[in-house]
Amino acid sequence: MERPIHKRPAFSSPMTRSAILLLTNLVVITLGQNSNRPDNDLSYTQYPKYPPYCSQPEEMAKRAVPPLKSDDPDIKLVHVTSIIRHGARTPWSHQMMCWDGYWQDDETGVWNCDLTTMVSPPSAPFVEEVEDNPSLVDNEIDAELGSSSMFLFEKRYDALNHPPFLTNYLNGTCQEGQLILRGYEQELANGRHLRQGYVHDGLSINSSSLASMDERMRLFDLTTDDDDLGGRKPYEEPNLRYRADDGQRTLMSGQVLLRGMWGDIIARDSAITGENPVITVHTADYDIDVIAPRVGNCPRVADLWEEAIQSDSYQAFINSKEANTLKTIMVEELGNDFSNNVHDCLMTTMCTDRKLPEILDDYGRSNGGGKYGENIFQRFVDFGTYYYLYPLVHNDAAYSKLGMGPLWYEIIANIKPFLDGDTSKPLTKLALFSGHDSTIEPLLASLGKNVWDGKVWVPYATIFNIEIHEKTIEEGESKHLFRLVLNGDVMTSRVEGCPDDGDLCDVDVLIELVEPFAIFDRDCASAPASDELASQNMTILSNPTFVIILFATITVSSFLGGLVTYFYLTRRFPCTGGKKAYQRAFSGISLQDKNSAFPSVDNGDPQDVVANGRSEKPKSPVSRYGTTEIESQTKGEII
Question: What is the C-alpha to C-alpha distance for residues 11 and 9, in angstroms, rounded to an integer?
């Protein structure tokens, strides 16, 4: 028997209870009261047009669950896995280098947030028993007082507010990479889309929803005593399984989505029962979680990333005329080569209505040409996209398949019981995974280039749904079909082996596609670079001619080294006669010619150039992609 949901003491009034719509892992979301901070303005007015990546309201409206194309009455939706990318956020790191002056400008370098986190201390098991039955302790009065001790703590990042001497990393009240109010609204919209698409509640306000109009899409039917719910609420386990990595923006994005999907139902249930539901979020240590490819749990992904960026295709891109033109713009016009952060610099600025440098401010409008041409913003976006996303699809998506194997295992583990007809325990109807761009993009890449070719960076609050439908063939016999929906677009026909003219496909196609790499026991050993080098060295040393040359070189070098040392110490060559007193001239480093002491960047190999301490090639997943938004960044978050 599964443990029943924890009971919590009631708050003082139904109004207070209904205000706490989510208590996921004892964390809730609230909005601050300071309306003067930039985060409080949710309008998009700075620019005439915004890229889809920003996920402004009109873009979010396009992401509703689409109706089924099939009119087969014997189909029934039984499971949905929903994978989301977090909503709009702050820059992922204060060490992120953008254009010159980015961090010094109050408009781009100071981040204040009205979105805060509230936490509550959990009750120990003994306390819970006492709250249920005060007679279990000697002093019933004290026990009863304890039953009303539920309270919350609001976390505010405002303790270091003494600029320029003491400030937080982002010079305001925001955390690095935290969800902002725009992201809150985006995930709220995602929750409403899931409610409209998969929940029939019988309310007149939702009478035109997809689930209300099409009985086959009713994953949850709240108008009937659904035995499939096992006597539990739809937002309780196992009906809902909520999974996220332990990052603020992913945890909160999932919470907000669930608020948009179930908020009114939770508030109603709380008012009736006088209890505050607890929704469990399953998570793990951030740096080794499998919600995205991470070197912390599989070192070999770094090898595959390196293999991709050393490929002929990638080298042709990084050394292309266009790439060099954009690097010239970065260095000569913007003061820094920020190739490693192009996407983040542009999008965290534009998507929050902050001001871009003039040369980049041409999205959706002509800049009149000029020596660098037009569409500079979009060209930078295309550059940044290929720069980081090509490794995900290189070599039949080897990096993505290895990195996402364990997460695919989790996804399939929620689906398999439906396919096997396992009725021994209640099954998960909705599995929610809250992650990053570096979660969704490699998942898509692992399904094949026709599904996702790495040329489009998934937007904020992207939602990827894997639907499992049961088709009754005859009494006692059925088969299962799947449908893939990405941001409201059906993708099923792009999967190899699925029909071109439909939106449903035999689930065996999906299982056979992902099962080979949907495993925990992966080959994650990083191939030591020294193995190949040692093999080469042994081959060389087996050549007698090379050994003679090597011995002669060492002998001559030793003789010359000794001669130079003798002359330096005595100021005379040996066997020249005449004994001079030992002198040592004062030596130092002349600063007059310091510039000539270093090789010119113009004369160096472009692949070896290091600008401002950063290599031209993209960082490995350890430092950027995956968490990519790998956050400090594997520390994706990523996608």
Answer: 7
